[in-house]
Design brief:
Blueprint (H helix, E strand, L loop, with lengths): L1 E3 L1 E3 L2 E6 L2 E8 L2 E3 L9 E15 L9 E14 L6 E9 L2 E8 L7 E7 L2 E3 L5 E3 L2 E2 L13 E2 L8 E2 L3 E5 L3 E8 L7 E5 L6 E6 L10 E4 L2 E2 L2 E7 L2 H6 L2 H4 L15 E5 L18 H14 L3 E4 L4 E2 L10 E5 L5 H10 L3 E7 H18 L3 E5 L6 H16 L3 E4 L8 H4 L3 E4 L16 H9 L16 E2 L13 E2 L2 H10 L4 E4 L12 H6 L6 E8 L3 E8 L2 E8 L4 E6 L8 E8 L10 E8 L4 E6 L4 E8 L2
Parallel strand pairs: 23-24, 23-33, 24-27, 27-28, 28-29, 29-30, 31-32
Antiparallel strand pairs: 1-3, 2-6, 3-4, 5-10, 6-7, 7-8, 8-9, 9-21, 9-22, 10-20, 11-19, 12-14, 12-16, 13-15, 16-17, 17-22, 18-19, 25-26, 34-35, 35-36, 36-41, 37-40, 38-39, 38-41
């Protein structure tokens, strides 16, 4: 990374293995009622440094994590009055670069009222991009990813982060950000006039639409990250987002427990062969708790409808300190304790905002494990700060958090590791009303959305269907793709709080439940063995001495080889769940076999249309 300013504009450029990734690109800030800060500056000080640390988290794609980079802090000053000052901090890693702005306190800038950034990403050549286009800054990030030439992106389209870019013959690049604190979330737009250029757009304030950030100086922007690798899988393996986030703010994290959960909402509170009427009532919740206990799941998530109703849309306006008459919360919690299962509760963000100080201590008293908070659909400065208030207050009361209707992860889970996961993805819930969540979509998610961090996609659907068989429905929803594809998602997709979404009877007598029972939700090592967007992906993840390997393909049948070099020394037993020979017509059909393997073994994967393969590899006894 090269940064320059010599009485002219502040710019940067990035190369990888001697080849240009970004040409000279502009840097700067658009400050309300002042000239832009950045076009006419000189460097007054450049301080090199380095970072070399190792840290652990209660959950993640690797543990421990090594954070090694070279750093540079550059102080610049305008060459003419009022001689405003700006600091640019930069870091260079083996798998990418990052930079951020620091606006120091100074007489003319005791308060920063930022109208926008002038940050530019001028790619060195035309490229293939894989963007998520949004219709505005008020978004849940739930939409389709596309494949578009960089030069073909329309200038009015708003691009969500992370953005995956392929520069042919140069590198794969992932653009995202980390450590959003008292700031607004970043998006990208095409410049229109320059075919290879994207520029930053920040989420506007809901109260002052012309302002994106208002804060007393000093002000630090989030880190602007460029993950860089020779293969797209290297970006999936990267820990840059957490590396660039502050260390843990929690003295004790022993109470933070990753795990899997049953969930009443996705299947429509459905149950078969039971003696009670299903729905949001005590009997149904206890039924799902019983399933968690029998399947070895740590949790049961009670979704919308448990709280005393207040009359607002989407359950906003509920009283989350009391239950509806059909829910006997003490009885449910007693039953859960007797089964060694802990309970999570859903809540609308407006109710959390209104009742957090009262509700969180009460939830702790009840013995609630965590809260799923929904429908924020914004990442302006106020909402970013709301997320942080929530995780801090939740940590005080030993509550874990899952953000739904959320913006992309930014590494906050390193600082407050009671933040387990967040949505910010078009996941399996869309099967209830659309045909949009396809095997092709799942492969794309692994290379795009997952670059930012954990995603609550909500896998586990066992009503597997072909494209022709599929129909959206609210009760007993279907999922497109094969049973082996559905299983493999537990290894491919990262989430330390992972759903087992279908209703309990969907798993009864199904051999594949054993894979779900065994698969962990947090990892010591992650390696992408192969794949590319639009084709397939194979991800291998290690927990202790066991490895879990997931391969998924899109709607085209696929074959791939999996070299097991990552196993290291010793002999292992591979438990393989694969598409059955007739899986193209009967997607619920899967085969299970065991074979002895070692680091020299080459496994051949043959996947049906919308298929996959899930493998558990454990040391041979």
């Amino acid at each position: 990374m090269t940064i320059s300013a010599d009485g002219g504009p502040l710019t940067y450029a990035v190369s990888f293995h001697g080849k240009a990734v970004l040409s000279k690109s502009a840097l700067g800030l658009d400050i309300q009622d002042q000239p832009n800060l950045g076009p006419n500056v000189r460097i007054v000080r450049a301080q090199p440094g380095s970072v070399d640390e190792t840290y652990s988290m209660p959950h993640g794609k690797a543990n421990p994590v090594r954070n090694v980079c070279n750093s540079l802090s550059i102080d610049v000053e305008e060459i003419r009055a009022p001689s405003r000052k700006l600091t640019l901090e930069a870091r260079a890693y083996n798998d990418g670069v990052a930079f951020r702005y620091v606006v120091p306190n100074q007489p003319i800038l005791t308060e920063l009222r930022l109208a926008g950034e002038k940050t530019e990403f001028q790619f060195a050549k035309d490229a293939t991009t894989y963007p998520l286009f949004l219709d505005g800054f008020r978004s849940s990030y739930e939409d389709d990813y596309h494949t578009v030439p960089l030069s073909g992106i329309h200038r009015e389209l708003l691009i969500a982060l992370p953005l995956l870019v392929e520069l042919p013959g140069v590198a794969w690049v992932g653009v995202t950000e980390a450590d959003i604190d008292n700031y607004a979330g970043m998006y990208l737009m095409h410049s229109g006039g320059q075919a290879r250029s994207l520029f930053a757009r920040l989420a506007p304030s809901a109260e002052e639409p012309g302002i994106v950030v208002s804060a007393a100086t000093p002000v630090r922007s989030p880190w602007r990250i460029l993950m860089i690798g020779d293969q797209p899988g290297r970006l999936v393996e990267s820990n840059l987002v957490t590396n660039l986030s502050p260390p843990s703010a929690l003295a004790d994290t022993s109470w933070i427990k990753p795990g899997k959960t049953a969930w009443d909402w996705w299947s429509g509170s459905f149950a078969e062969g039971v003696s009670f009427r299903t729905g949001m009532n005590t009997e149904t919740m206890n039924h799902y708790i019983d399933f968690s206990a029998s399947a070895g799941l740590e949790y049961m998530l009670i979704d919308a409808g448990w709280a005393r109703r207040g009359g607002g849309p989407n359950d906003s306006g509920s009283d989350i300190t009391a239950t509806n008459p059909a829910i006997d919360m003490p009885a449910i919690l007693d039953h859960a304790r007797s089964k060694n299962v802990r309970v999570w509760l859903w809540a609308h963000w407006t109710d959390i905002s209104r009742q957090m100080d009262e509700a969180f201590p009460l939830f702790e008293k009840w013995g609630i494990a965590g809260v799923k908070i929904d429908f924020m659909n914004r990442d302006d400065q106020w909402m970013v700060n709301f997320y942080r208030r929530v995780v801090r207050k939740a940590a005080e009361h030993h509550l874990m958090i899952d953000f739904h209707g959320a913006y992309k992860p930014d590494g906050l889970e390193r600082t407050y590791s009671n933040l387990m996961t967040r949505e910010g993805v078009m996941g399996a819930e869309y099967n209830k009303w659309s045909a949009r969540v396809t095997p092709d979509h799942n492969v794309m998610l692994a290379f795009t959305r997952m670059l930012a961090g954990p995603m609550d996609y909500t896998p586990g659907g066992f009503n597997n269907a072909t494209k022709a068989q599929f129909e959206p429905r609210n009760r007993q929803p279907m999922v497109m793709g094969t049973r082996a594809h559905a299983l493999a998602l537990y290894a491919v997709f990262e989430s330390p709080f992972q759903m087992v979404s279908d209703y309990p009877e969907a798993y009864k007598g199904q051999d594949e439940l054993e894979y779900i029972r065994a698969v962990p939700t947090t990892w010591d090592q992650t390696q992408v063995v192969g794949g590319r967007p639009g084709d397939y992906i194979t991800v291998a993840r290690r927990h202790g001495r066991e490895w879990y390997v997931g391969s998924i393909t899109g709607w085209h049948a696929n074959e791939a080889n999996i070299p097991l070099e990552f196993l290291g020394r010793g002999e292992f037993i591979a438990e393989i769940y694969a598409d059955a020979p007739d899986a193209n017509e009967n997607p619920k059909h899967a085969t299970r076999e065991e074979k002895r393997v070692n680091a020299s073994t080459l496994l051949h994967v043959k996947m049906a249309a919308g298929g996959g393969q899930a493998i558990r590899i454990r040391p041979a006894q």
